[in-house]
Design a protein that fits this description.
The chain is of the alpha/beta class. It is built from 15 helices and 25 strands.
Length: 492
Amino acid sequence: MLLNQLFKQAPEIEIQSINDDSRKKKPNSLFFCVKGMRFDGHQFVQEAIENGAIAVVHSEELVHYEEGILYFRVNDVVDTLNVIADLFYAEASYHLQMFGVTGTNGKESIAKIIQEVLNPDKATGNIGSDSITYGTVKLQPLLTTPNIIDLHSILKEMVDAGMKAATLEVSSVGVEQKRVQSVHFDYAIFTNLDHNHLDFHGTMQNYFEAKKKFFDDLDEKACAITNIDDPYGLKMVEDSEARVVTYGMSEEAMYSIRQYRLKKDGTSFCLKVYDQEYDIETNLVSRFNLMNLTAAIVALHESGVKMELIQERVKFLTQMEGHMQMIQEGQNFNVLVDIAHTVDGLSRVLEYATSITPKNCRIIVVNGSVGKRDKIKRQKVGNLMDQYCDMIILTEEDPRNESPREIAEEIAKGIDKTPYLIISDRYDAIRQALELADPEDTVLVLGKGNQKFMERDIGRCSYQGDVIIVKEVLKKYVLIKEGEDYEFEQIY
């Protein structure tokens, strides 16, 4: 693209890429001096030039101006980057039906459900915390919500690959850092608000305001879909220019959940849509997946998908690995792997575990808490597990530069009556839990889901993933049936 197409009165010079990372080699690039949480791009202009920048966008006076380089001083570099990125990548979001999902829990599930239901008729991409997928392409995730340049670049690649729609997980940090400011959304979904990311936002009010800005920025042609059961649900959309649609258990919801039945292998319910009622059956389990599915149904139906088609396609949805995933390798007890890492998410998983576990049997949980994040919630996590569980095994969960044992000891401050162990190595902790289980017990492995990495003090390290570890350990056992008695024989 020519520079004078991005800045009026600029010379007619070819710009091959835009960049905000001075370390990247980008010939003939336009460099943006973005101020991050730790670094200020103004300090690295020379490095960017050495790596190919021929033009620089800045907001502060620079120490040195190099001859032959073009400089553009603006009031706000990030605001300018949003405008330029949208132009440079051909306003890609305007060529896609865009679904944005925000909230503490459920973003990934809702985005994936929408993608799966739409895909057979309307090629749909997804950008999220688990992966980036479109057509036959599957890429490793970046951030939950990628940075401005990456996001617009990916959306452009989706358009070029023939995608007609896209789903995006919109994080509060992403909104606060203006990563989605120049993305055009047609549908925006709010799930819930719970204690999370307070290390970044400071207070729940700031956290709420970050989420709310996503809806405040919608235009009048967009549709804002909100969970009316959540205390923040209506507040979230009160200043939005978008058309508001509500969902939830409440009878006042436009999409109201009625007469639901939770089973071990699925869920059935009646959904009242305005004045009509529809029977819904799905292989998804638990009350919070019921809410996630309903949010997805609302977005799909409001976008024009017929309810009869939705009813058919949600019956057997693809199991998301590490999300409320029941694992069966022949054992006679329940094993559930879930990524739950917030207080609300943990509460919902524990409630579900209680509903499927016989009263005379135990709930055994493997869990931890991340390092350098929301330390205040650790004791709350311990207290919740103390209420619901019969055995607790505390272990590592992205400890970063903190000691896994010290994190576990902070969680343990919330444990009063339940026996617990601290086993820092996550593989050993999972193995211990499975070896302790008796027939009809429920073992919960929480916090990592199917993530294939562990954040340590040296950075992101390779990790097998909870699902793989659980299956591997279970396969070391053979179920033997002797009359009415069951036992496990360990094979070495």
